[in-house]
């Protein structure tokens, strides 16, 4: 049985270090190797080091590991995980490659260099070790041309996208001789262990994502030049208006680096033989000129955009491609763009944009048309099915819809008619498909999904780990529904409570559904999962609602909402069936409180979790303070042991509205309990939570019982309040921050009681509610709420 316990990454550049970090993220020790430097740095000479010194010899990998801790967004789930990476070099440490289970080549994109390295690896390679390349597009077969058959069986492409932690796509590319069992293993490993979206690609130039993606970017550049569009205009059209990321075309290119992009495009240019296709991959003169000038993007400070800092402040300028001068970036608007902005969902946006008939809808169509046609033309050559192509563009380029999904969205038959009327040649298989009576490449039959495969619809294969609430809803598995939340039967006697209000903000509808779910599960189910498929798990309580009530002085209403919140959480907590929460992405304020009553939390690796109420001038009052105080009291059961340090840590976390940078990082903030877990693949979170429910039930579930909480009382409160006072005196926090901190201290300390007093959960909830209500009456708190609602960020008044 293949198991990857240790890995080696060769090449510690942008991608090598990022891949090493991600392996470290999932607990795999990594050896990171690079070449030995040929010259000393001034500081090395000054320190008396010579070229033989290990510090110098490992310099590249060492520096790469250091950089990982400073890079933003963080490549590591937790800075501590850097310790799982060991630096080395390719001269002194090659023999260590015999001791790892997977070797990944991530050096310069050059066939000869890769071949040379691979033959060096083969000399120390031991049977069973998997070897792969992260090449962006060089032939996998060519790399192992002169390797032994046995080595070839163990060799394949594993193409990660940048940055490896955050980009979902990994293309797995077998060579002609790769053992199918190894291909299957790597696909499973990359999905389950590394949390990636895996696409199997054929060994063709640039594989799938970079073949179609590069084509699309080149088409866009050509259309811009031909149609006289500006950089801002193209970005206004090719961003969210078309279901693409905000970085659209040119901020993406600036980020990737124009030099890298030209290199990737040239690879296809060099390798394809069809003159028309070759021509499409010829980089425009504009790009070549920019590369010559060194205007290659962010790494050199300028590309299509340039950040300029002057006395007047920071300004983003954009390149005028006619004059090759930078000028102030213009905001673009038009009826078509506005229509797309207003439209709901990507399908709606595309239809609105393309239907508007102005110069921006023309641009969108002129970019889309060739990309759809090219994807269809290349289908058989590059992929096994349309699904791989769609996944590659969604996961590797952050498109909302892949090419074939886009085609369905804009109407297959209608758009093909338009293409033909404009003189385009549509691939025969597409025509034949339409002629046989079809108007889409995908079909959803009551939650069962089908896709086009060789002239028929084939069911999309799925894995048990992929539980889709959306599909289950289409299969009539909804047990209860209201406007903010649903309870869904996810099989095996487990129900899932799904939030689906705007931004998944918690209001009365969700709270009511929580109570109803508890009743339903108590009578009819084995346990409950709290999870959803929103962009974020939950951004908190509905601040708009609170603000309105507070501004109108409806204190009874506010009190009622908080009571409902607290009671709902208590009901969930006292349920006599297991409850498992599975938060993902932003889980803030009330979102955290909705997870806290659960017996177990399965955090997605990408979870940004924190009680951030202070940011809107409040304190947690849905049981958040009470739960944290309870956990501290449970952690320090011995009455002789000082509780204060625990409470101080909680105080700091909540007063400063700290948010975790990953699921693992919740541990640093004290949110992760011993029984909590992290799931790396976000698509598996509901399944993992369901399994946890079943495990808890099977092992004879004991419901949570209410217990008394030992509190630090008046003395402890004073300690926290002195800390807040000092912060205020130092000018670190505002007067209002101090007021909030004082109220928080009061609640966390258990109010005005002697240290060591044992209080009930309800007593703590009452303290929370009281403090919350009084803060709601503060004008500065209302200003904070208003600011958050209009600007989406915290006001520090
Ligand atoms: P990079 O230039 O940042 O890093 C390359 C590293 O390899 C450097 O640390 C260098 O010292 C080392 N190196 C160079 N030649 C070597 C040799 N002969 N032996 C050993 N080490 C050597 O490059 P990168 O962007 O990390 O790209 C590495 C690979 O990943 C390339 O094949 C590239 O096509 C591919 N890739 C890059 C990206 C990306 O966005 N940058 C994305 C996917 C794949």
Q: Determine the oligomeric state from the structure.
A: single chain
Q: Output the structural class.
A: alpha/beta
The largest beta-sheet arranges its strands as 3-2-1-4-5-6-7-8
Unreliably modeled segments:
none
DSSP, total strands: 25
Mean pLDDT over the full residue set: 96
Taking the alpha carbons of the first and last residues, their distance comes to 60 Å
Separate helix tally: 33
Key features of this structure:
single chain; 797 residues; alpha/beta; 7-stranded mixed beta sheet; 25 strands; 46% helix; globular; binds nicotinamide-adenine-dinucleotide
Write the topology of this structure:
Elements: E1 7-10, H1 14-25, E2 30-34, H2 42-46, H3 54-57, H4 59-70, E3 85-89, E4 102-105, H5 111-124, E5 130-133, H6 140-143, H7 149-153, E6 155-160, E7 169-174, H8 180-192, E8 197-200, H9 209-227, H10 231-238, H11 250-256, H12 258-271, H13 275-280, H14 285-293, E9 305-310, E10 313-320, E11 325-328, H15 335-342, H16 345-355, H17 359-382, H18 386-397, H19 403-410, H20 412-421, H21 428-435, E12 442-445, E13 448-453, E14 456-459, H22 469-474, E15 478-481, E16 485-489, E17 494-499, H23 508-524, E18 527-530, H24 543-551, H25 555-573, E19 579-581, E20 585-588, H26 590-595, E21 600-604, E22 607-610, H27 624-635, H28 644-655, E23 677-679, H29 685-698, E24 709-710, H30 713-729, H31 735-749, E25 758-759, H32 761-776, H33 779-791
Parallel strand pairs: 1-2, 1-4, 2-3, 4-5, 5-6, 7-8, 17-18, 18-19, 19-21, 20-22, 21-23
Antiparallel strand pairs: 6-7, 9-10, 10-11, 12-13, 13-14, 15-16, 16-17, 24-25
Bound molecules: nicotinamide-adenine-dinucleotide.
């Amino acid at each position: 049985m293949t198991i990857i316990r240790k890995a080696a990454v060769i090449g510690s550049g942008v991608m090598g270090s990022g891949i090493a970090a991600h392996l470290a993220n999932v607990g795999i020790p990594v050896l990171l190797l690079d070449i030995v430097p040929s010259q000393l740095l001034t500081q090395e000479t000054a320190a008396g080091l010579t070229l033989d010194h290990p510090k110098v010899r490992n310099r590249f990998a060492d520096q790469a590991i250091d950089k990982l801790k400073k890079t933003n967004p963080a490549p590591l789930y937790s800075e501590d995980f850097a310790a799982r990476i060991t630096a080395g070099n390719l001269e002194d440490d090659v023999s260590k490659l015999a001791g790892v289970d997977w070797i990944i080549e991530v050096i310069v994109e050059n066939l000869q260099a890769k071949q040379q390295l691979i033959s060096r690896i083969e000399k120390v390679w031991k049977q069973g070790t998997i070897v792969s390349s992260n090449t962006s597009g060089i032939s996998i077969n060519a790399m192992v041309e002169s390797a032994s058959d046995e080595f070839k069986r163990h060799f394949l492409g594993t193409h990660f996208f940048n940055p490896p932690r955050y980009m979902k796509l990994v293309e797995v590319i077998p060579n002609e001789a790769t053992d199918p069992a190894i291909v299957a293993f790597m696909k499973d490993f990359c999905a389950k262990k590394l949390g990636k979206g895996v696409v199997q690609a054929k060994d063709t130039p640039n594989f799938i994502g970079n073949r179609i993606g590069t084509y699309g970017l080149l088409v866009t550049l050509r259309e811009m030049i031909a149609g006289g569009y500006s950089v801002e205009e193209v970005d206004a059209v090719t961003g969210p208006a078309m279901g693409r990321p905000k970085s659209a075309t040119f901020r993406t290119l600036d980020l990737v680096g124009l030099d890298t992009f030209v290199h990737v495009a040239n690879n296809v240019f060099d390798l394809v033989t069809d003159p028309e296709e070759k021509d499409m991959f010829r980089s425009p003169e504009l790009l070549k000129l920019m590369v010559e000038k060194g205007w290659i993007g962010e790494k050199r400070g300028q590309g299509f955009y340039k950040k300029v800092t002057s006395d007047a402040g920071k300004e983003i300028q954009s390149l005028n491609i006619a004059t090759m001068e930078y000028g102030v970036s213009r905001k673009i608007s038009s009826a078509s763009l506005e229509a797309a902005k207003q439209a709901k969902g990507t399908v709606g946006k595309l239809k609105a944009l393309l239907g508007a008939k102005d110069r921006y809808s023309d641009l969108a169509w002129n970019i889309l048309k060739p990309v759809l046609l090219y994807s269809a033309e290349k289908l058989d050559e590059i992929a096994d099915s349309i699904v791989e192509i769609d996944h590659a563009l969604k996961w590797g380029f952050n498109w909302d819809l892949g090419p074939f999904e886009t085609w369905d969205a804009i109407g297959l038959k209608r758009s093909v008619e338009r293409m033909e009327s404009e003189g385009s040649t549509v691939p025969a298989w597409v025509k034949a498909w339409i002629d046989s009576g079809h108007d889409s490449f995908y079909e959803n039959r009551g939650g069962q999904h089908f896709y086009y495969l060789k002239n028929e619809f084939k069911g999309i294969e799925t894995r048990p780990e992929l539980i889709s609430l959306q599909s289950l809803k289409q299969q009539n598995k909804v047990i209860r529904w209201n406007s903010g939340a649903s309870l869904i039967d996810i099989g095996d006697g487990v129900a899932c409570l799904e939030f689906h209000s705007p931004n998944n903000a918690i209001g009365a509808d969700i709270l009511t559904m929580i109570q109803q779910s508890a009743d339903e599960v108590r009578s009819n189910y084995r346990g409950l999962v709290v999870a959803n498929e929103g962009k974020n798990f939950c951004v908190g309580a509905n601040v708009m609602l609170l603000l309105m009530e507070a501004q109108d002085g409806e204190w009874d209403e506010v009190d009622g909402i908080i009571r409902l919140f607290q009671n709902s959480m208590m009901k969930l907590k006292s349920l006599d069936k297991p409850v498992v929460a599975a938060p993902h992405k932003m889980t803030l304020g009330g979102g955290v409180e909705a997870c806290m009553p659960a017996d177990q939390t399965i955090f997605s690796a990408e979870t940004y979790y924190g009680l951030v109420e202070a940011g809107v001038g409040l304190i947690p009052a849905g049981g958040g303070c009470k739960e944290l105080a309870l956990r501290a009291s449970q952690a320090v059961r011995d009455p002789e042991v000082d509780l204060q340090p625990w409470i101080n840590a909680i105080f700091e976390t909540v007063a400063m509205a700290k948010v975790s940078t990953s699921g693992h990082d919740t541990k640093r903030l004290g949110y992760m309990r011993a029984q909590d877990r992290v799931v790396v693949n976000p698509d598996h979170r509901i399944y993992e939570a369901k399994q946890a429910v079943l495990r808890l039930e099977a092992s004879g579930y004991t419901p949570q019982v209410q217990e008394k909480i030992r509190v630090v009382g008046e003395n402890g409160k004073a300690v926290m309040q002195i800390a807040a006072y000092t912060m205020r005196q130092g000018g670190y926090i505002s007067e209002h921050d101090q007021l909030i901190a004082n109220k928080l201290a009061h609640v966390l300390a258990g109010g005005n009681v002697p240290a060591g007093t044992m209080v009930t959960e309800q007593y703590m909830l009452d303290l929370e509610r009281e403090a919350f209500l009084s803060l709601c009456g503060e004008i500065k708190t209302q200003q904070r709420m208003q600011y958050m609602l209009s600007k989406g960020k915290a006001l520090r008044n």
